[in-house]
Fold:
Amino acid sequence: MEYIQNPTSPKFQYTPATKQEWLSTSTWAVYFAVLGFVLSGLYIIALLLTLFFLLKSSAMVGMYLNFLPSSVLFGIVLLLLMYIASIFVMFFGSRHHLRFSHSIKQAVQHNNQSVLEDAWWSMRRAWKVYGLYTVVMLGVYFVVLVSVGYMMQNSPLMRGY
Structure:
């Protein structure tokens, strides 16, 4: 298999098939970036609606947030923090996908090794964001499950069992 090489940049080598695969990958990266931005917007709308209905329902029942039991207030705050974390992860992950797409196209068109390295740095960064979010959310789920188990164990309804 023969490599195409730019004389000004001796490190940048690729086959025509590799070039085509990178361009195809960049198209999919744009698709997932746009999808992530749209989902980020929908999550913001969902967050605002959740806040609105939460405040509206608590006012209708005659309660205000300072009169809610601490476990309910903790659950509400946790839910809102999870929404906010999801929004940030989707937005920044999508931003890195978009940067990857633009950089990979530019690297292939101009045979530029440094732009290619920047493209792959952006993709690595996106996966780091997703991985960190996954680890944090698994930890949150674990804490919630342990907390619910502890509350159920100490609940007056469960004492007879």
